[in-house]
Amino acid sequence: MDGDDVHGTLKLVSKEGDTFEVPIEIAKLSNLVVTTLGEEDIDEDDDDGGVVEIPLPNVKATVLAKVIEYCTHYKMVEPMTPITLPLKSNRISEIVQDWYARFVDVDQTMLFELVTAANFMDIKSLLDLTCLAVSVLIKGKSAEEIRRIFNIGNDFSPDEEVHLRENQS
């Protein structure tokens, strides 16, 4: 094999059945992929022509495309600066490189789907980045605003809520 194909490719299959062929070295940012490859006892230099398919039943095609975009940038262009706690800023671009800040500048639905995909695929750096974006999204918000963001109902009656607010003051 030539130097460009030493590690081969694999196919990631979205919830809808869409297939994405990805270099194994890029896909290995996902611990789910690493574990699956280990369980399959795959020889990356095997020349039988077979390409491993890994089903991702919890990841939509649009989200998987974004995950692959992230992994490709991380491996081929520049790794993300590690996120340290406590956060030193409320601006994502002051915590990580601009490309990563722009990457999570998406609508709320996509952001939450990226969190879910990063968690399911076990991609720690992507999970850290998307959770950072969620934390910035809710920082400084009231309990009611946070419930609205996460689509959580209010379990308290109006009287209980007044009582809780009085006790917090």
UniProtKB/TrEMBL annotation:
Belongs to the SKP1 family. The lineage of its organism: Eukaryota, Sar, Stramenopiles, Ochrophyta, Bacillariophyta. Gene3D superfamilies: Potassium Channel Kv1.1, Chain A. It holds the Pfam family Skp1. It comes from the Eukaryota. It comes from Cyclostephanos tholiformis. Keywords: Ubl conjugation pathway. Pathway: Protein modification; protein ubiquitination. InterPro entries: SKP1 (IPR016897), SKP1-like (IPR001232), SKP1-like_dim_sf (IPR036296), SKP1/BTB/POZ_sf (IPR011333), Skp1_comp_dimer (IPR016072), Skp1_comp_POZ (IPR016073). Residues 124-167 form the SKP1 component dimerisation domain. Residues 10-75 form the SKP1 component POZ domain. This is S-phase kinase-associated protein 1. The keyword Metal-binding does not apply. The keyword Ribosomal protein does not apply.
